[in-house]
Amino acid sequence: MRKLFQEDLLNLGDQLADIAVLVAEAMDKAYRSFETADVQLAEEVIAADQRIDAKQVDLDEKAIELLALQGPVAADLRLVVGALRMSTSLERMGDLARHIAQLTRLRYPDTVSPTALVTVYREMAEKCHSIAKKLVELLVTRQLDLVDEIVALNEQIDELHAGVFITIAKPDWDASPASTADATLASRFFERFGDHGVSVAHKVQYLVTGEWETKPTA
Amino acid sequence: MRKLFQEDLLNLGDQLADIAVLVAEAMDKAYRSFETADVQLAEEVIAADQRIDAKQVDLDEKAIELLALQGPVAADLRLVVGALRMSTSLERMGDLARHIAQLTRLRYPDTVSPTALVTVYREMAEKCHSIAKKLVELLVTRQLDLVDEIVALNEQIDELHAGVFITIAKPDWDASPASTADATLASRFFERFGDHGVSVAHKVQYLVTGEWETKPTA
Question: Which domain covers residue A129, as residue numbers?
Fold first, then answer.
């Protein structure tokens, strides 16, 4: 029984990694749709989010079943509870990628991004995509140096996010108010995506080391 | 032992209600600070958010202890897992109230809200406050008609949120781009607060009835 349970715990980790793969793909496609006003790609991201949601439900049911049938304690219990929390964060990251795609669809055939912010968003999106890919690697390998890399990427996203507001407040900002609102939301979506990524990374770290790295809340 | 456990479960409900009381208070004060540019009140909300965070950590530790010591199954297990999830949503609602207060502080001594949106934000904030107060009542009384009331309030918030973007896109919108960005974020914070409120309400409903009311994700 004990052996089976350890296998179940490893399966939870694999399920989390599977979700993270889909999240990384969602962010990559969402951003490409956003930059190029590719409404078909946007629709793909929006539809694919249901798969992420379904996988989260599966994982959560599996975790609750483990709690019920195995009554884990100590580190194993923390791992199952941690998996429940990580799945929530990953699901939310999928939602945020979908929100980016929804902005694409809303403004089609126009592009969402004002010209002044195209490169900023591209950088934010690349860093978001990179965070999601590193989460996959972290969940599979438990190489904790990836946590610091994810934290660093998120700090860069936060700086870019702050920069968006500076750009918007500049005298030469000439986008329409509606476009300014879209630009604000898009930046916020990238920023939240990064925060959730850090949250997942810190949970993996905690489960591996038993030490909680406190993170200032966003 | 069995009796003690039922008492522990009731205590979890009380702890959730305690957090919801603080969240309701935070939203009320955050909005008053936002409308009147009362930076002192805003600072109070920002500082008080740490109490919400600490109470969430307490509740989560208690819930994990229950899982470890009592190995609950079936409905009791769902209740403990549900409590963990509700605490996450409530903590997030506290964060969103704090974000409103942070906007107040950022723009002080100016008010954040463009004149055209003062009444809209007031309505959104009142509905958010009302949702949080109804959550307290729901957690204490388990009167499920409150769930529908919370869902209805959230729909009204969503409509007001959509209205903000219509207002911003109108030709007579004359707020500065920075103010447009603030206005967008504020509206988003209220909207997310309502969504989390519905999420908590649906979890209470599920725990009472055993039937999951699916909710389209935001």
Answer: 2-209
Q: Sort out which chain B residues have CB atoms less than 8 A from A176's CB and list them.
A: 169
Contacts of A177 in chain B (CB under 8 A): 168-169, 173, 175, 177, 180
A71: left (phi over 0), alpha (psi -120 to 50) or beta: left
What ipTM was predicted for this assembly? 0.93
Note whether B181 contacts A168, CB cutoff 8 Å. yes
The A-side interface with B (CB below 8 A) comprises: 49, 53, 64, 67-68, 71, 73-74, 77-78, 81, 84-85, 88, 95, 165, 168-169, 173, 175-178, 180-181, 183-185, 188, 217-218
Domain-located, residue A217: no
Contact check, Cβ <8 Å, A95/B218: yes
**Nearest partner of B203 among B154, B161, B125, B147, judged by Cα:** B147
* Domain count within chain B: 1
Q: What is the pLDDT of residues B48-88, one digit of tens each?
A: 999 999 999 999 999 999 999 999 999 999 999 999 999 99
Question: pLDDT digit string (tens) for B131-147?
Answer: 999 999 999 999 999 99
Q: Give the phi and the psi of residue B88 in degrees, each rounded to 5.
A: -65, -45
User: Has residue A218 been placed in a domain?
Assistant: no
Mark yes or no for CB contact B180/A177 under 8 Å.
yes
Which of A67, A71, A95 has its CB closest to that of B217? A95
CB contact under 8 A, B181 and A178: no
| CATH number of the structural domain spanning residue B35 | 1.20.58.220
Closest Cα of chain A to B91: distance in Å? Answer: 10
Residue A179, number of CB atoms within 10 A of its CB: 22
Contact across the interface for A64 and B77, Cβ inside 8 Å: yes
